[in-house]
Write a structure and sequence with these properties.
CATH architecture of the largest domain: 3-Layer(aba) Sandwich
Oligomer: single chain
Largest sheet: 7 strands, mixed
Number of helices: 12
Shape: elongated
Bound molecules: S-adenosylmethionine
């Protein structure tokens, strides 16, 4: 069954008596090549368990099932579950779970299904909740090998931005703590039904197996990033002093110690710089 075919999508949904639910960010893929490309590129290990978020009617799920050992797909919309039972019937390596990915115990889920397999995440994410889902995955402590997500093109630009660029922000600096992101390809709005207002892009984040950075005080590292980007037009010194209990002299000394100028703004600092700054201030 071609699950990217518009007539097939409409027929499956009409048979199930449901329509697209905007509140769940339902924009389904209608260009077959896209789920194939995402599935091809989401991990290098075919023996992986893939955690898919939001399978919809299963167009990406089936491509994942063909390529990888096992797929566990978490879908919030109860109305889609009977459709997925139908479309995934021929794949005995797919498990569909009707739940909210923001509420699922990720470690318990992985423990239950992974049987020692490496676990990668792959998803065409609902746009309304992209960043919270990504942060939840990163902060879960689960050892995912990679996270491959289709997201709004502008958000993708932020995830892969370099320090000093206008797209570089708190999320970029925090993401750098967990792994390396690269943009795989852009997907135009016309590849979805209903068509969203903006284009999308697929980003793959390869997570560090072992932590690359080990700040002496992780909370301070995060607080510094938050402070720097909450007031990104201020100098780093002023932004930090406005939010954290350090004197101007102490902050300036730390900024100099990590090799930056007195007037540097936080947006110029890499993840590694923020770790060094936190260590200097610890
Ligand atoms: N994977 C399908 C595709 O590529 O055509 C659908 C992608 S659609 C952009 C996002 C999917 O995520 C929808 O099926 C939606 O119901 C589901 N979803 C939205 N919020 C969710 C949540 N919190 N937990 C799990 N699934 C969610």
């Amino acid at each position: 069954m071609d699950l990217c075919n518009l007539s097939v999508i409409r027929e499956l949904m009409s048979d199930a008596g449901i329509t697209f639910r905007k509140e769940f960010g339902q924009n389904f893929l209608t260009n077959r090549i896209i789920p194939e490309d995402i599935a091809d590129n989401c991990t290098d290990n075919q023996q992986s368990l893939i955690l898919e978020i939001g399978p919809g009617i299963g167009c990406l799920t089936q491509e994942l099932a063909i390529r990888y050992k096992k797929v566990v797909a978490v879908e919030i919309d109860r109305g889609l579950i009977p459709i997925l039972s139908r479309t995934m019937a021929e794949y005995d390596n797919v498990t569909v779970i009707n739940d909210d990915i923001m509420k699922v115990d990720l470690q318990a889920l992985v423990d239950e299904y992974s049987e020692g397999m490496p676990v990668a995440v792959c998803a065409n994410l609902p746009y309304y909740i992209t960043t919270p889902i990504l942060m939840r995955l990163l902060e879960s402590g689960v050892k995912f090998t990679s996270i491959t997500i289709m997201i709004q093109n502008e958000v993708a630009a932020r995830l892969v931005a370099k320090p000093g660029s206008s797209d570089y922000g708190a999320i970029t600096a925090v993401l750098g703590y967990y792994g390396e992101a690269k943009k795989l390809f852009k997907v135009s709005a016309g590849c979805f039904v209903p068509a969203p207002k903006v284009d999308s892009a697929v980003v793959r984040i390869d997570l560090y197996r072992e932590p690359k950075y080990t700040p002496k005080n992780e909370k301070l590292f995060r607080d510094l990033i938050k402070a720097a980007f909450e007031m990104r037009r201020k100098t780093l010194q002023n932004a930090v002093c406005a939010k954290l209990p350090y004197s101007k002299d102490v902050v300036l000394e730390a900024i100099r110690a990590i090799g930056h100028t007195d007037t540097v703004r936080g947006e110029r600092l890499s993840t590694e710089d923020f770790v060094k700054l936190a260590d200097e201030l610890s």
